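Dear colleagues,

As part of the handover before I leave the project, I'm documenting each prediction I ran so the next person doesn't have to rerun anything. This entry is a single chain, and its sequence is reproduced below.
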Amino acid sequence: MNKRIISQFGILITFVFVSNTAIAAPMFSFNYIQQKLISDGFSKQTIQAMYARPDVKSDFKAISLFFIQQESKLNYDQFLSPELIGKARSYLKEHEKELQVAENNFQVDPKIITAITLVETHLGTVVGNRKVINTLSSIASLGDRHVRDQLWKSISDSTHYSRKKFAKRCKAKSEWAYDELKAFLKFAKQESFDPIEIKGSFAGAMGICQFMPSNALILAKDGNADGKVDLFNHADAIVSIANFLKKYGWHPSISNQDAYEVLLYYNRSKYYVNTLLKIRETL
């Protein structure tokens, strides 16, 4: 079967499953991840209690998708349709106050913030439905040889990867996901929310602005002055995007070429960046 979704990176992903084995693999425990987190200074009691909760479980399907997917470019022209541009204009009006705060404090154009929100999550209406703790813990578990062996057995007939390339990708993805997992748990503690309740993309990006936890931890901001950061709140997401762009060089008189370079930090796709600039110009 084919399954198509839009990722937080603005890429249309077509997942091709040759058989059902990739999604019917056995569950695996998070003992490996728990031991790593505890050894890195996280509270043993907190970690064990969190991973004992019934909603925390391995997502073999999620990690399979990184190895048996075929990528094709999203039709970015859809974001320039009269319907979506109309919704973006309505968003500018509806959130004028929040966008003005972002512009005043970070000198970032409200139209580019709106463009990012439109492409990332359709103005906050599509934010992902996978539990971030499960996604990141599962991908990080690829550092465990037993999990890697299970995965390879499950997908070896469905992937173009050689065993050597598969192992190399497992190492890179597990290290990346483990760093993001640590950032996610620190962010949850910092902002006093239950990490089990947060849902996001298939790669673990969160909220209206689709920040990865490492970005959220250092760049997310409180936009409505309620004393906390909630990336599912428009005010907070808006100023967080503004803070991100300012950090990477956005300023009021920025040229299109320099704006292009700054926006690449948000997403390395030139199609994505060109679409943002076209949306901004249209708005």
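The domain at 76-127+205-282 is CATH 1.10.530.10 (Lysozyme). The CA atoms of residues 55 and 92 lie 37 Å apart.

All the best with the project,
I.
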